[in-house]
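Page 47, continued from p. 46.
Same chain as before, 357 aa.
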Amino acid sequence: MSDTIVHVNGLCKYFRTFKRREGVAGALKDLFARTYHQVKAVDDISFDIATGEMVGYIGPNGAGKSTTIKMLTGILVPSTGKIEVNGFVPHRDRKHYTKTIGVVFGQRTQLWWDIAVIESFKLLRRIYDVSQKDFDARMALFNEILRLGDFLHTPVRKLSLGERMRCDLAASLLHNPPLLFLDEPTIGLDVVAKESIREFLKTINPQFQTTVLLTTHDLADIEELCKRIMIIDHGKILFDGSLEEIKRRLGKINQITLYLKDKAEIPKIDHLNAALATLAQNHPPASSAASNGLKLEPVDELKCRILYDRNSIPSEEILRQIVNTLEVRDILIEEESIEEIVKKIYTQGSEALVAPN
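Result:
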């Protein structure tokens, strides 16, 4: 594709490591004899990212996310495979390539620790050869959205985590790179700081067609920012597609939360259980390997929830059984959250994605 900015094909990264023996005697033995084995951190992955896309790249700890990002930014050299980003091979053309990308690592800063934030920005302006006119225009935009003005003259070491992350994000975009890598940009931030960063990215992406590859454990970031997600585990990509597709394929379980009117309704829960059992028999799953997922669980004395597969059992039939059996103060119907869907993939692996519908 002509608008592809990131092209990855058959990418692998192997690390050679050994198991350390315990104790002083073990350490001495390790000096003379070690048994090495090879760890596949990234195992034959391929994908393309188009200009202007915002893609979520997620997976459990140790899945290979950060290793992939480090290869894409030129920090690590791939063991095998091909990477081409914006016309560059990152590890080979690193000097010129780094001027075309922005990078934010949640636990590290690219700002100078002991000088004022504005002085760091001025140094970066010279490093990236940004004109004074462009610098002033971008600083005005960043200040408007990220509200940097209150601490531009504060040393970086005196900033809170949220303030530093906003400054790091601005610093990574001072030179208007076409591609931005974000590795856990909202880690440890409060709700207000997270929302500020999300709103900033929502503004920058369409205005400058900035392509964003985002890794995070906060799936609210993914839902707010990304239409496409890639899920990696044990070095392999398990899913690459739209957020809507994964919700359609795996987000089949609905939840109805019941708030009972008073304690007099508690004995009637057994009657509701019996009615739901009959309902389940009348709505068998589409295949013998599947399940209609119908289950009633107590939450506390006056609260319980019903889980069910909405593709097997219509919601209105469950609601009819509820109102015919119990008196309730309130009923809340919720779809399965993206956290639950992704947790299912983390725990079941690729089997979750091929499970019968």
